[in-house]
Design goal:
- The protein is mainly beta.
- It has one domain (about 5-70).
- The protein has strands spanning about 5, 10-15, 20-25, 30-35, 45-50, 60-70.
- The radius of gyration is 15 Å and the shape is elongated.
- The two termini are about 20 Å apart.
Length: about 70
């Protein structure tokens, strides 16, 4: 129903060997909020993909992770 927001600001990280900057959040936990609207069922699946990088390396990205929401 809306765009996701995060409680931390994005910063840009340039890794050696890449010709682009990566938009990343600071180290540590980041809380995301996504407004949703119930249209029927009391359960919904949210599918997310994400990656984690430090100044020296990136972990293997997680793709299509299903998070089940109970909207009861």
């Amino acid at each position: 129903m809306g765009k996701p927001t995060a409680h931390q600001a994005i910063r840009h990280l340039r890794l050696r060997g890449l010709s682009t900057e990566l938009p990343v959040y600071p180290d540590g936990p980041v809380t995301f909020t996504l407004p949703v609207r119930r249209t029927g069922s009391h359960q919904a699946d949210v599918i997310v993909s994400y990656g984690a990088c430090s100044a020296t390396r990136c972990l293997v990205p997680v793709t299509n992770e299903v998070i089940q929401l109970d909207l009861g």
